[in-house]
Amino acid sequence: MDVPPLRFLMIDGEGDPNTSPAYVQAVEALFSVSYTAKFMLKKGADAIDYAVMPLEGLWWADDLSSFISNDRTQWKWTMMINQPDLVEESLVHAAIEQVRTKKGLPALDALRLETFHEGRCAQVLHVGPFSEEGPTIARVHAFIEERGALAGKHHEIYLSDIRRGDPSRWKTIIRQPMA
To answer: Helices 21-42 and 89-102, interaxial angle, to 10°?
Structure first.
């Protein structure tokens, strides 16, 4: 597939997402600002409503063997939430300031609104816990290597709320750019 340029609220970090306070703070800031922007538009003069998109993550490491050895302390990430075009930068700044006033979240200053163009990719739906993604990722990589080469960063789109539900039913889109 060819993924067009899309606008995201983004934040960068590194470390084990299961134990890193920075990861938790990043996700909290992303959702807080995304929902605040949504409700600002909904309560505005035009009463525009839309669904907040799912959390997405780009994952990489300086030493890719850290993924094989599962050394998550070496992982780097960009967490992000897609924003509709009607969410202008000025609205994002206003939402950040509103969240700052109400919650004072430490990660707010690290947020940015950015266009991300992934381009040509292969993707597949993985059902199950993140710890069992390995074979699914291997299939995507094999598919790409038969047709070209891996490019860009490993991309995951989290369709399930992991705070609720059975991990065996979690749904994650695994996406990998290709050359």
So the answer is: 120
Which of 146, 155, 87 has its CA nearest to residue 123? 155
Task: For the full predicted model, state whether its pTM sits above 0.85.
Answer: yes
80: enclosing H helix or E strand: strand 76-82
Measured in degrees and rounded to the nearest 5, phi and psi for residue 12 equal -100, 155
Backbone angles phi and psi of 161, in degrees to 5: -85, 110
Is residue 46 classed exposed, middle or buried when 0-12, 13-18 and 19+ CB atoms within 10 A define those classes?
Answer: exposed
Backbone angles phi, psi at 139, to 5 degrees: -65, -40
Distance CA 105, CA 51 (A): 23
User: In the 8-state DSSP scheme, what is residue 137?
Assistant: H
Averaged over successive runs of 10 residues, the pLDDT of the chain (179 residues) comes to 97 94 97 98 94 97 77 93 96 98 96 97 96 90 94 96 89 96
